[in-house]
Specification:
Number of helices: 4
CATH topology: Nuclear Transport Factor 2, Chain: A
Distance between the termini: 39 Å
Number of strands: 7
CATH architecture: Roll
Number of domains: 1
Shape: globular
CATH class: Alpha Beta
Helix content: 25-40%
Length: 173
């Protein structure tokens, strides 16, 4: 029996499964280490690819800092797979657009990605980026951290998000 999964590649599915087991270490909240890079099948990830992934994450964070949903959505493939916590997977830009618009409608709300690691395909055409998102609902609120995994496609214009998977932070007992 075959089961249809909402992922375009096995690497994206594997990273999604791995993200479900990540525990956020509160002590690391103050320190952001340089991201780690791994090439699927072994070998080194070219420096140009590493730099392009760091720049992609920086572009996402700059768009968030400007509170600009259109700039964020420009980083997404029009057929993006959006996997939000406790929601059915959806395809397309409607769900991400609504999410970012609602987030930035909150006065003072801030969002940023802390890029932890990336796995790059042997031909550098696909990558998975893993890290933490940090959301601060208002300037005086404590930050909320959760996990994210992005499945990315290399294009002539840079990386595009094919799949966006994020996990709500663990609840405290």
């Amino acid at each position: 029996m075959y089961v249809a999964l909402p992922f375009r590649c096995l690497t994206c599915f594997t990273m999604w499964i791995a993200a479900a087991w990540i525990v956020v270490d509160a002590a690391s909240a103050q320190t952001v280490e340089p991201p780690r890079f791994r090439r699927a099948g072994g070998g080194e990830v070219p420096a140009t690819v590493q730099t392009s992934l760091v720049r992609f994450n920086d572009a996402f964070n700059r768009a968030c800092e400007r509170r600009d949903p259109d700039a964020i959505l420009a980083l997404y493939d029009p057929g993006v797979e959006w996997l939000a916590p406790d929601k059915a997977p959806v395809t397309g830009l409607d769900a991400p657009r609504a999410s970012y618009q609602a987030l930035f409608a909150q006065t003072g709300a801030r969002l940023a990605h802390e890029f932890v690691s990336a796995t790059v395909s042997s031909d550098s055409s696909l990558a998975t980026m893993r890290g933490f998102y940090v959301f601060r609902p208002s300037p005086d609120a404590l930050p909320v951290r959760g996990n994210f995994v992005l499945c990315l496609l290399a294009t002539s214009d840079g990386w595009m998000i094919l799949t966006d998977i994020f996990q709500a932070p663990p609840t405290q007992p």
